Structures
1.
Amino acid sequence: MRRKASLVLLACAVFCAALAPLMRWYAFPRLARIPANQYQDMVLEAKGATLLDYGSLHARKVSKVTIVQTLKGNVEAAKKIEKTAGRPVVVWDSLSYVQGPDGKMVSRVPERYIFDAHSQDPVHATGEMVDGDPVTRQGIEFKWPFLTQKRDYEYFDAQTRTTGPIHYKGTQTFRGLKVYYFEQTIPWTKVPMPKTMPVQGITPETVARTGTTRWYSTVRRFWVEPVTGAPVYGEELHQEELRGGTLLGGRAKVTAFAGDVKMREDYIEHTVALVKHNRTLVLTLTSYVPWGSLAAGLLLLALALYLEARARRPQDPTPTQATEPEPVSA
Amino acid sequence: MRALIAAATGLALALALVLAMTAMGTPSGRTSPEPLLSTVPSHP
C-alpha cells in the first residue's frame, strides 16, 4: 500500500516540477500577449501652455491644451499580417487629437503601429505609417515589453519619424507600484507639418511654399511598471516652433506650442488600477505558478521518498520454530 | 521500473496540460466599434 502511494506521489512530484519551467518558458511567451482587439484612450493636458494663434501668427499663453490619444486594435489587419509574418501580431490604429482651450482642433495625427504581441518588436508591413507617411519603425512605442529590464531601450519618435535611445534612469515607487523611470531627449529637429492644419485652406504644401519650417524638441518621461511593461505615468516637455520663411513676417521664429504635457489625474488612477490587475496575471505565469509548483514538487518528492524508505525497512524478525534435533544414527 | 513509469506519467500530464493551455491561446476577439476620439472624454 505504501509503495503504491509513494509511486502516486512521485508522479505528482514530477508533474509539479515539470510544470514550473514549462509554465515560465513555454506557456508565458505564448499566453502573455497584448490582445489584438485592445481599445484604450488617454487624456493628457498641458496647463498654462503657449500656443500659436494661427489667425495672427503670434504665440499666446492659454489655460490648457488637451491631447486625446486613442489606441484601437485592428483585428482583421492583424490576422492578415500574421499570415505572412508567421507570429502573433497586433495592429494599433491610433489618433493623437490635440485640442485648444476653446475646444477647437489644433492638430490630429493618425498612426498605424504594428508589433509582435509578446515581444513588442516592430513588425513591418504595408500600412505602417505616421500621419499618412509610410515609416519603418525600429524599437518600441507606447509600451515596453513584458518583464522590462533596467536598461536603455530604443524608442520611436513619431514627430521626427526616427528612433533614439530612451534611457533607464532608476527605480522609483509610483502610487504603491515599483516602476522604472525612463527619459528620452529629442533635440531640436526639423519635422514635417501635420497633414491636417488647424485653419481651413492652409495645407502643408501652402506653408512649404512660404519657406517656413516646423521644428520640434521634447523631453519624454515614462514611469514603467516592469512586469507588464506598461507605462503608468508619462510626461512630455514639448516644444514646437515655426522658423523662417515669409509666413512669419520677418521674424526668425515663433513658438507653435510649448507646454508640460501630463496625464490627467483620473486616467492615472485608471491606468494604475488596470496595471495592478494585469501585473497579477503576468506574475501568475512568470512567478506564482512556476515557484509554487516547484516547491510543491520538491515537497511531494520528499514525501514519496519517505514512504518508499518506510516500505523498504526490514520487518521485525519473526520467531523461529525450535526444531527437534534429529537422532544421529550410526 | 514502476518508479520510472510513475515519473513519465507525471511528465506527460504536465506536458499535456501546458500544451492544451497554449493551444487554446488567447482569443483575438473583434475590432472594437468605438471610434478614434476627437472629443475629450469626461472619464476613462
2.
Amino acid sequence: MKVKVKSWTAVATWRWIANDDNCGICRTAFDGCCPDCKMPGDDCPLVWGQCSHVFHMHCILKWLNSQQVHQLCPMCRQEWKFKE
Amino acid sequence: MIKLFSLKQQKEGESRTSGKRTSAAQLRIQKDLSDLNLPKTCQIEFPDNDDLINFKLSISPDEGFYKNGKFMFCFKVSQNYPHEPPKVKCETMVYHPNIDLEGNVCLNILREDWKPVLTINAIIYGIQYLFLEPNADDPLNKDAAEVLRQNRRLFEQNVQRSMRGGYIGSTYFDRCLR
C-alpha cells in the first residue's frame, strides 16, 4: 500500500521545568503568567536564583526593586543572585 | 505562530479598552483567602462582601495569659500586596507588650521581615502567637513589657484585670472577655 500525505498539522505543548508549580510571590502557576501579563511564555519568563528558588521574572524584579538595602530571596532570605 | 501573535496583539488591545480589571493584589488576596486554614480560635469577617481587601479578624485565645479574651484586628491590604505587607491594627484596647494603646502591632513579619511569599494565613498565625507568647524583648507597650520581665505573676494579674475591664495605672481598658 502506498500512502501519500496530503497535509499534516503539528501540535506541540510546552511547560516550564521548575521544581515547583506556582510562583511563591503571585501564587499563580508558572505555566500561567504573572498578574501584570496576559500571555504566558517567553514574554513572562521564569528566572532562577543561585539559591535554586524560581519566580516569574516580573514578580521577583518588582520585589528586588522595592528593596533598598539587601536584595534577598523571598523564600530563603539568602542574598538574591541570578543563576547564569 | 503567526496566528498566535495576532491573537496576542488582539488581547493586548482588549485589555487596554476594557478598563477596570481585577488587580494583581485582589487576585493574590483571593488565593490567600481560599487557602486559609485557620485555627478554631480565629475568625475572619468581611464587613463588605464585595471588598476582599478590608476585613476583620477576631482572636479568642484558648490558652495562655489571654485565655477567654476576644480581640479584634482590622486588616487593610494595599494595591501593592504582596510586595507590601497588609496594615494590621488591633481594635481592642489590650494590655500587651507588643501592642500599643493605639492598636499598633509589633510583629516582625508585618514590618522589616515581610516578604512576598508570606500570606494572610502566616500573619494570622503570627498574631495568634503574640497572644500565646508575649515578647518582652521587643516592646511597644514598655510598661507591660517591664512588668512581664520583672514579675510574671503581676503581669498575669494585670492582663486579667484589663480583660475584665479596669484600670492598669492610669489607663482604662474596656472589658473584652468572651
